[in-house]
Amino acid sequence: MKNAPAREVPQPTIRRLPTYLHYLRDRAASGQAVVSTSAIAQHLGLEATQVRKDLGYTGVAGKPRVGYPLPLLIDAIEALLGWQRLSRACLVGVGHLGTSLLGYERFSHYGLHIVAAFDRDPRQHGRPCSGRTVWPMDRFAQIVRRDDIHIGIVTVPADAAQAVADLMVAAGIAAIWNFAPVTLRLPPGIIVQNEDLYASLALLSQRLVAHVTLQAQDDPHAPHPERGR
Q1: 95 and 134 together in one domain
Q2: Which of 81, 99, 114 delimits the end of a domain?
Q3: Strand ranges (DSSP E) for the chain?
Q4: Do 174 and 120 form a contact (C-beta atoms < 8 A)?
Q5: Which residue positions in the chain have pLDDT lower than 70?
Q6: pTM of the predicted model, to two decimals?
């Protein structure tokens, strides 16, 4: 397989690549051997030029009027995303969100293997959760080092997130996936990805209001989000 070019991949492209990969895996599972840029673009609602530009970062060249070889393209995207080797992770905060993440089996298809779970609530300690034992926080550093864990997932309330992040850094965690609605203060070199569910909800709500408002301008009888409150 041709090596991907050693250039920085834009974040919007990184965000689209998993969507491409999901579609490509489905096509491969159905027995398809090649796929065209136009087919990908049409299925995902994107411009073909954008798809072609994104896939250019993989280093795989498509053939005119034929397309990309599916197995080669899938391997190249997985390699570019670092998903060919499972990354071992732990999760802190076995509440509703944490439990849901632990139960999501498809993470392993995307290079993530959550091998341990922790919680400060004694009632959680020792109980199984989606095949993992929930450990007390005083075992954190020991288990992280024992199991060679490099990714920490934070699903605790905002007021506990910084202390958890500090514990992760002290134990040798290199990357943190933060679901708590708070900005973490981390040393240089620690990788952090924030998933702000409230910000996503705000964007969704704002887009809905704008959409309904536009409808109301065209149709005065259209429903409005303020009505019925």
Answers
A1: yes
A2: 81
A3: 34-35, 68-69, 87-92, 112-118, 128-129, 132-135, 151-154, 175-178, 191-194
A4: no
A5: 1-7, 220-229
A6: 0.74
